[in-house]
């Protein structure tokens, strides 16, 4: 890639209500949309897609570097070599507190047991989402930047 050839570069931004969590240039962005996995490169057709609670992988332009970010759902919008993810929360792998995520997983599992014993479907749904978020954070924490 030529140094000044911006037509082959995708700018990736991840934003939460707390502000910008991530912003870098990339060759490839990989996300899990509700309808399946998406690989986004420069010059991709404009799209908007809802995302699952999952890992986002950004293959950066600098020295074959890859970043992993845990996102809790949200939306991806791609247009004009700009990929923007808007999510309720997002954490880079290097910023995840593994012990805290493991405690959140244990709490969610306990809430699931309680909801099952009380036949509480609303609490069950909330606990299942909390469990998916915790498991995602634990998984992503093992994918430190390469």
From TrEMBL:
Topology term for the membrane:
Peripheral membrane protein
Occurrences of domain ATP synthase F1 complex delta/epsilon subunit N-terminal (ranges): 10-90
UniProt GO MF annotations: ATP binding; proton-transporting ATP synthase activity, rotational mechanism
Pfam families found in the cross-reference section = ATP-synt_DE, ATP-synt_DE_N
Q: Which SUPFAM superfamilies match?
A: Epsilon subunit of F1F0-ATP synthase C-terminal domain (SSF46604), Epsilon subunit of F1F0-ATP synthase N-terminal domain (SSF51344)
Domain ATP synthase epsilon subunit C-terminal as annotated: residue spans: 94-142
Key words of the record: ATP synthesis, Cell membrane, CF(1), Hydrogen ion transport, Ion transport, Membrane, Transport
Q: Which domain of life is it from?
A: Bacteria
Transmembrane stretches in the record are none
Q: What is its main location?
A: membrane
Q: What does the entry list under GO cellular component? A: plasma membrane; proton-transporting ATP synthase complex
Q: Where in the cell is it found?
A: Cell membrane
Record function comment? Produces ATP from ADP in the presence of a proton gradient across the membrane.
Q: Which PANTHER family match?
A: ATP SYNTHASE DELTA/EPSILON CHAIN, ATP SYNTHASE EPSILON CHAIN, CHLOROPLASTIC
**Oligomer and partners:** F-type ATPases have 2 components, CF(1) - the catalytic core - and CF(0) - the membrane proton channel. CF(1) has five subunits: alpha(3), beta(3), gamma(1), delta(1), epsilon(1). CF(0) has three main subunits: a, b and c.
- Family per UniProt? Belongs to the ATPase epsilon chain family.
What name does UniProt use for this protein?
A: ATP synthase epsilon chain
| Organism per entry | Agrilactobacillus composti DSM 18527 = JCM 14202
